[in-house]
Structures are given as structure tokens and as C-alpha cells.
């Protein structure tokens, strides 16, 4: 009998999901998985229909920090630079969920430029994503099911009690070419460096055209050292399984976030010193175990459980290479908006 607590993933998808963790190219994925390149390419096409692969840079080394702001609802058409998305969120009251990737040196300036009534602000000193290598997951290759390992999660609570490491920055980062390659990889984890640079040059004419040899030097010496790994998130139909948002406060909020984000169908967690945000699509049959874990920890959920509205979102992809000069972050003079939709 198939458990309702499980996600059906075929064996090739699972092998490729694990193999791409430390793979810089699709050829390396194939080698790690022990599969032909053509097979891996086909599996990736199927994977992209039910999930997304993410390139994970070390934001600390780049002088960047992910930010989440919960704010009282209002119509917005203009956002500060470095804002990624603004979404309406459903809960006990109407809220906005605002996400950004901001140079640490500009955090206060970005926050003061955000014209909203802020309810909560979370700095992602730790930015985690579920990954198939370091997770509380069990894969049944006979039934092709990916299931949460709640027993392992319970036993691991004490492992995640360590404090959150905070940091500051003097505004230093990689150069524009390096950031252009990183931005390309954030769109497509296997985008060729030359393609990423040429794509960026369409938006920033100050970027140079480099030889293959020169660009390879940038990748080896500057880009790969800030690359952590790749990972994949599987997504369910949001109409049936909404994206749940858990905003938690308290001294154990970091522990809860580190545990939940390792369960299948949780996607990401951003962890501040004494608060955190976790997003995922846990099945209803997960909820009892999730709240059992919560009940053992010193946390509170002041906003209760929240649901992201999938139909109401303004989104932009910040072209971060535009805001670098002499390996330092710069603040754009104008407030920018590059959105697909406006928040209504």
C-alpha cells in the first residue's frame, strides 16, 4: 500500500537529483550518476516539469544577505533595488511577503527605502534549501517513493542547537564578470560561463567580452570558490498543495528551521539570530509530526500559519553585476521596478 506521506519520484530522477549536488556541468552529473549524458538531459527535462534546480553560492563571501519582510498589505508598484519578489500572503490578516538579496553594507538603507508598514524582518544569515544529500529523507527504490524520516529528525534535534553566525561586510565582493557568471548560474545552474557573460552584456554594456581562456580563469579562481553546491526542490500543484510559510520566533527557531528544511517538500529556510522563515508544501499527513517537533522547542508563531498567494506576485531578477564597481557594491541612484505583475 502506498503511503500518503510520500512523494513519488522514479529512480532516475532520484539518482540525478543526488548526482547534481556537486556537479559543475551536466557531464559531471552523468559521471556522478553513472548514466549517459543523453539520459541525464532527458531526466533533467522531466525534473524541470516538477521542480527546479538551484545554484547555491556562498552569500557571505559575496557580501550579500537574503532578507524577508512581512508587511501590512498595500498596493506597491515600486520597490527598492535588490528586491526579488513581492507576494500577497493569506493569514489572519492581509500581509505582503517581500524577499530581497541585499548587500550587507546596504541593509539599513534598503530597509528604510521600503515604503511599507513592517510587521517582521528576517535576515538570512543562514539560507538553507532542502537537498537530497543532507536530508531527513527515505527513498524506496522499489515503490519509487520519497518519504520523510521523522524518526531521524527527532533524534537530530540536539545536533542543531549551535548558534547562528552573524557577519558584517565592508562592501567587498567579486568583480562584475564573476558576478555575471554567478547570475547566469542562478537562472540556470548549468549555463555555460560564456553564455552567462554574453547574456549579461546585453543589459550592461560596461562588461567586457573575454576570451575563453580569460573567462575560464575567472571561473576557476573566483566563481567556483564561492559555489557551495547545487540542489533541487520538487513542487506539487499549488492549487492543491499551497505553499505554507512558517514565521517563528524564539531561541529555538533556528533549530526548527534547520530540521524542517531537511524534510521532503520543504523548500527553503532563512534563519536570523532569534527568528526564522521556513517555506514548503508539507502534505497534511506531515502536520502531526511537524507540530510534535514544534511542541518540544521554545518557539512561537505570532503570525500563525500563512499561505502564499500563487496568483498575486510581482517579481524581478536583479542584475547584480550592474551594481559592482572596483569589486565593491554600489547603490543604484533610482528605485527600480522590473515586474511581471503588479500587486493588486
Rounded mean pLDDT is 92
Regions with pLDDT < 50 over 5+ consecutive residues?
Answer: 335-344
Query: Structural class per helix/strand content?
Result: alpha+beta
Percent of residues in beta strands? 25-35%
- DSSP strand count: 16
Strand order of the largest sheet: 6-3-5-4-14-11-13-12-7
Percent helix among the residues?
25-40%
Largest sheet properties? 9 strands, antiparallel
Shape: globular
Secondary-structure element order, N to C: EHHHEHEEEHEEEEHHHHEEHEEHEEE
**What is the terminal separation in angstroms?**
45 Å
Count of runs of 4 or more consecutive helical residues:
11
Query: In angstroms, what is the radius of gyration?
Result: 20 Å
Short description:
The protein is an alpha+beta fold.
Keywords:
single chain; 344 residues; alpha+beta; 9-stranded antiparallel β-sheet; 3-stranded antiparallel β-sheet; 11 helices; 16 strands; 27% strand; globular; disordered C terminus
Please provide a written account of the structure:
There is one protein chain. The chain is built from eleven helices and 16 strands. It starts with 6 loop residues before the first strand and ends in a 15-residue tail after the last strand. It has helices at 11-19, 26-33, 37-50, 59-62, 107-113, 150-155, 176-187, 193-201, 212-223, 253-260, 287-295, and strands at 7-8, 51-57, 64-72, 83-90, 95-103, 118-123, 126-129, 137-140, 145-148, 227-234, 244-249, 266-271, 275-280, 306-315, 324-325, 328-329. The chain is globular, with a radius of gyration of 20 Å. The longest helix has 14 residues, at 37-50. The protein has 344 residues and is of the alpha+beta class. It has a domain at 168-226.
Amino acid at each position: 500500500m502506498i503511503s500518503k506521506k510520500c512523494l513519488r519520484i522514479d529512480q532516475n530522477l532520484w539518482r540525478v537529483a543526488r548526482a547534481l549536488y556537486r556537479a559543475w556541468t551536466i557531464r559531471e552529473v552523468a559521471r556522478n550518476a553513472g548514466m549517459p549524458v543523453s539520459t541525464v538531459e532527458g531526466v533533467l527535462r522531466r525534473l524541470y516539469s516538477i521542480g527546479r534546480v538551484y545554484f547555491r553560492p556562498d552569500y557571505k563571501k559575496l557580501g550579500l544577505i537574503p532578507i524577508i519582510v512581512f508587511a501590512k498589505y498595500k498596493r506597491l508598484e515600486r520597490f527598492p533595488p535588490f528586491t526579488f519578489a513581492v507576494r500577497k500572503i493569506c493569514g489572519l490578516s492581509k500581509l505582503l511577503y517581500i524577499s530581497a538579496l541585499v548587500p550587507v553594507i546596504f541593509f539599513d538603507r534598503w530597509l528604510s527605502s521600503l515604503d511599507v508598514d513592517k510587521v517582521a524582518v528576517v535576515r538570512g544569515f543562514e539560507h538553507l534549501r532542502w537537498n537530497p544529500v543532507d536530508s531527513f529523507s527515505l527513498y524506496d527504490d522499489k515503490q519509487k517513493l520519497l518519504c520523510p524520516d521523522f524518526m531521524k529528525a527527532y533524534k537530530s534535534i540536539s545536533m542543531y542547537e549551535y548558534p547562528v553566525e552573524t557577519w558584517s561586510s565592508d562592501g567587498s565582493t567579486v568583480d562584475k564578470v564573476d558576478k555575471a557568471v554567478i547570475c547566469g548560474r542562478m537562472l540556470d545552474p548549468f549555463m555555460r560561463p560564456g553564455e552567462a557573460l554574453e547574456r549579461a552584456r546585453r543589459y550592461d554594456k560596461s562588461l567586457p567580452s573575454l576570451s575563453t581562456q580569460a573567462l575560464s580563469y575567472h571561473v576557476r579562481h573566483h566563481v567556483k570558490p564561492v559555489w557551495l553546491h547545487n540542489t533541487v526542490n520538487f513542487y506539487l500543484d499549488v492549487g492543491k498543495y499551497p505553499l505554507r510559510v512558517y514565521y517563528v520566533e524564539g531561541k529555538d527557531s533556528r533549530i526548527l528551521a534547520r530540521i524542517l528544511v531537511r524534510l521532503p517538500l520543504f523548500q527553503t529556510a532563512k534563519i536570523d539570530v532569534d527568528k526564522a522563515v521556513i517555506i514548503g508544501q508539507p502534505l497534511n499527513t506531515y502536520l502531526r509530526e511537524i507540530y510534535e517537533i514544534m511542541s518540544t522547542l521554545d518557539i512561537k508563531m505570532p503570525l500563525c500559519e500563512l499561505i502564499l498567494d500563487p496568483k498575486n506576485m510581482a517579481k524581478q531578477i536583479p542584475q547584480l553585476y550592474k551594481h559592482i564597481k572596483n569589486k565593491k557594491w554600489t547603490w543604484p541612484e533610482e528605485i527600480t521596478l522590473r515586474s511581471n505583475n503588479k500587486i493588486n
